[in-house]
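Archive maintenance. Older records in this collection stored only the sequence; we are now back-filling the structure field for every entry so that each record is complete. The fields below show one back-filled record exactly as it appears after the update. Entries are processed alphabetically, and Putative pre-mrna-splicing factor isy1 is next in the queue.

ARCHIVE ENTRY
Title: Putative pre-mrna-splicing factor isy1
Organism field: Anopheles marajoara
Length field: 271
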Amino acid sequence: NAEKAMTTLARWRAAKETETGKQERRPYLASECRDLAQCEKWRVEIIREISKKVAQIQNAGLGEFRIRDLNDEINKLLREKRHWENQISDLGGPHYRRYGPRMFDADGREVPGNRGYKYFGAAKDLPGVRELFEQEPPPPPKKTRAELMKDIDADYYGYRDDDDGILLPLEEKAEKVAIQKAVEEWKQNRAKGSEASSKKDEEDEPDIYGSDAYITRDAEKEVRDDPMGLLGPRFTAHVPVPSQKDIEAALLKKRKQELMKKYGIDEDEPM
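Back-filled structure field:
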C-alpha cells in the first residue's frame, strides 16, 4: 500500500508540474542536446531511474509479466545512458565508456550471444531464462590450417633456444650429473655381480676344441662355400698324379697312333 501511495503521489506531482509548465522533459535523442552540463544532468537522471528499477526487480513476487517489463525498461535505459555518454564524450567531456566505473555490471547477467541484453534480479530465475544460463557457451570456432601456420616460426621449432646462453650451461651440467650417476651404477653392478657373471659365462661357454661337432660343421660349411673345388682335394692320393708334361706326351703319342692307323703304317715298320 505504501508503494502504491508513493506511485499515486508521484503521478499527481508530475501532473501538477505539467499544468504549471515547470516540468522539463528529457530530449528523445541525445544528439539534440549541445550543452555539456545538460547532458551530464540527463545522464545522472537516467542512472537514478535505473537504480530504482533494479531495486524493484529484486522482488520475485511482482509476477512474471511485471518482471519482464521491468527488465526490458532497465535494458532500454542502459542503452539510453550509453547514448548520453557518447554525446558527452563528443562535446569534450569525460569518456565514461572507457574510464568510468562499470555500473550495474554486477547486478546484470548477460546470456552469451544475446547482443548485450542483460537480466537483473528476479528476471534471472524466470522460466526459460534459467535454462539459458545453464547451457554451456558454444565452443570457439576451429582455426584453419592457414591460421595455425601464422603462429609457427623459428621459435616454434626451437632454433633460437640457445641464443640467450642459458640452456647450454644447464644441459652441460645435467649431462655431467647423468654421466657420473651412470658410472657409479655401473661400478656398483660390476662389483656385486662380477663373480656370478664370470661363473655363468664359464658354464655357458662351449668347448669348441673338444667337440667333433664344430669340426664337422666347419668342414661342411667350407664344402658348401667352395662348389668348384678351388680349395684343393679333401682326400689323400694313393697313386702318382701325372704332371703337365706327362699329359702332353700322352696326347702326342695318341695323336701319332691315330695318324699311323689312318695311313696304314705299322708302328714296327721303319720310317
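Update note: Residues 182-224 form one domain. The beta strands are 108-110, 118-120.
Entry marked complete.
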